[in-house]
Amino acid sequence: MTVLVTGGRGLVGSHVIEALRVAGEEVRVFEGDVTDADAWRRAGKGVAAIFHAAAKVAQSLPFPEYERINVGGTQLAVETARAAGARLVHMSSASVYGRSGAFAAGRGAVDEDFPFQPIPEHDFYARTKRMAEELVRDSGLPAIAIRSNVIYGERDRLFTARVIATVKKGIFPLIGPGTNHLSCVYVGNVGSAIVAALKARPAKFRVYNVTADAPPALTQREFIGAFAEDLGVRLFRFPAPVFLARLGSRVFAQLQRLRYPGRYAGLGGAAVSFITGENPYTAARVQRELGWTPPFDTRTGISRAVVWFQAGA
């Protein structure tokens, strides 16, 4: 089948392209602005499936720009899928649940039917990803939405790049006891799940969490330690009280909002919930309904990421 991929130069999109080609599928990469209806009409001719990943994630931009890309682009993906009779897989996010509310639920408590919790006004990404997913849901198409948590791995210039840069300094804060399991997933596992979703034929809109690697799950301490080991760094860890980390992150986010009014300015205290909290999401449904299991464990994912970054890519 021919699959149209948006966001092909991004983290998830590029890995999905690789996984589709390995699976022997023909890939067409979307070119141009995803809010350009003419570009969609040209790209969508004759495709059997669409994977829509293009989105603004953590850029310092005003809300209307997030809405234009994340929601407006999704509307055109829906219209193109309908016109072409193509299957649609939409890259959503676990942030649609509400970040703080999901972590408060506890380990493994958030499945796809977990009720949406409030999203802070300043969380432009989560707000527009929820709007975009609801648009797909209400379209009437038998589409699939993939909700992932924090994604790490090769080509990740956000989370992974920052972890590596900090570990290379040889000093890393240990926030809390470090025995929790981080809410993140290796990009190779996300790509594999999306290929499975593109081959599925749901009768109606369906949502799947893709939010954990193959076992064993690593604790926060083990996760950072694995990066240090692969980087050849002897790491000194210093304890950082959770309340101070939470206060510091909130103050920093507030200063950013004052400096750049009306623009996205970070997650504040939600970032500390990620570092210190248990992974609240369960991915049982995707394994049960699509027969998919993550092909990579976390240790392998970290090693592959470090090799890629060490190669200077």
What does this molecule look like?
The structure is a single chain. This protein has 313 residues and is α/β, with parallel strands linked by helices. The chain has one domain: NAD(P)-binding Rossmann-like Domain (Rossmann fold). Helix content is 46%, strand content 14%. It has 12 helices and 10 strands. The protein has helices at 11-22, 37-44, 63-84, 99-105, 124-137, 159-168, 187-199, 220-231, 242-259, 269-276, 284-290, 298-310, and strands at residues 2-5, 26-29, 49-52, 87-91, 144-148, 150-152, 171-175, 184-186, 206-210, 236-240. The strands form 3 sheets. It has a 6-stranded parallel β-sheet with strand order 2-1-3-4-5-9, sandwiched between helices. The model has no long low-confidence stretch (mean pLDDT 92).
Quickly list its features.
single chain; 313 residues; alpha/beta; Rossmann fold; two-stranded parallel sheet; 12 helices; 46% helix; 14% strand
Topology overview:
Elements: E1 2-5, H1 11-22, E2 26-29, H2 37-44, E3 49-52, H3 63-84, E4 87-91, H4 99-105, H5 124-137, E5 144-148, E6 150-152, H6 159-168, E7 171-175, E8 184-186, H7 187-199, E9 206-210, H8 220-231, E10 236-240, H9 242-259, H10 269-276, H11 284-290, H12 298-310
Parallel strand pairs: 1-2, 1-3, 3-4, 4-5, 5-9, 6-8, 7-10
In the CATH hierarchy, what is the architecture at level 2? 3-Layer(aba) Sandwich
The stretches of 5 or more residues where confidence is low (pLDDT under 50) are none
Top CATH class: Alpha Beta
CATH superfamily: NAD(P)-binding Rossmann-like Domain
Overall 3D form: globular
- Using the CA coordinates, give the radius of gyration: 19 Å
Provide mean pLDDT, rounded. 92
